[in-house]
Specification:
The protein is an all-alpha fold. 76% of the residues lie in helices and 0% in strands. Helix 1 packs antiparallel against helix 2 and helix 2 crosses helix 3.
Length: 79
């Protein structure tokens, strides 16, 4: 949870700066951390519900967070 809070703050700073500091890597990392946290919550409260691994949730989290930040569907599809 601390890693997500840190990366979310760093991503917000990177997006709002008027400098070419790179947008995609912090957004990918933040989305994958959030996806992994979601997997942990779902696995903790409903262990028999999941039939997928944590990396799959991380991949979907990275794609969905990137699509939400950039507002471009093609960016999420490229992942």
């Amino acid at each position: 949870i601390l890693a997500f809070a840190y990366k979310f703050t760093v991503t917000a700073v990177a997006v709002t700066l008027p400098l070419p500091v790179g947008l995609f890597t912090p957004v990918f990392i933040t989305g994958s951390i959030l996806g992994r946290l979601l997997w942990k919550v779902v696995f903790t409260y409903a262990p028999g519900f999941l039939r997928c691994s944590p990396w799959e949730f991380a991949l979907v989290g990275a794609a969905s967070f990137t699509t939400g930040v950039t507002r471009g569907i093609s960016t999420g599809i490229k992942i």
